[in-house]
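step=encode ok
step=design start
structure_in=
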């Protein structure tokens, strides 16, 4: 159901041809990159956390990792990922297909600055075998993000391809 909602959303936005249903799994960054023929860092992975009991999503580059110190400075608590079995009920998408589109009401989306290195990225599209190709302004618009945050590490050493 999640993939269909995302596909319909982008179809109505005139970008339905950018939503890809893949023949292979794209549930991990490496699987997605291999299936899509891009570098892992160009996969816009969506990480799900709880902040004061409320789900939030952070979309980051595939080579970025959450920096606990930066996360705590920004959200004023330790990074606590949503347990796998609670992701779909709290966010609206299953693990491996979590994306920043068509999420449940009240879920806030943040974009990490690690993505700003790229003109285009591939976030998931609601299932473990889907993706959508977007440029950064499109990602900002369609994710309805709260804005850009700097909560990741490990990507700074990775120069643009």
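sequence_out=
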């Amino acid at each position: 159901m999640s993939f269909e909602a995302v596909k319909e959303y982008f179809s109505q936005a005139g970008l339905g041809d950018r939503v890809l249903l893949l023949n292979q799994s794209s549930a991990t960054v490496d699987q997605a990159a291999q299936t899509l023929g891009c570098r892992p860092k160009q996969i816009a992975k969506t990480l799900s956390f709880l902040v004061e009991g409320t789900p939030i999503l952070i979309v980051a580059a595939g080579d970025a990792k959450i920096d606990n110190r930066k996360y705590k400075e920004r959200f004023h608590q330790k990074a606590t990922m949503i347990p796998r079995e609670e992701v779909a009920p709290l966010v609206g998408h299953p693990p491996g297909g979590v994306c920043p589109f068509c999420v449940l009401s009240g879920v806030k989306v943040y974009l990490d600055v690690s993505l700003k290195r790229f003109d285009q990225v591939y976030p998931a599209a609601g299932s473990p075998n889907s993706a959508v190709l977007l440029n950064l302004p499109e990602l900002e618009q369609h994710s309805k993000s709260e804005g850009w945050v700097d909560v990741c590490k490990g990507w700074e050493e990775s120069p643009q391809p």
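step=design ok
step=annotate ok -> The first strand starts at residue 19 and ends at 21.
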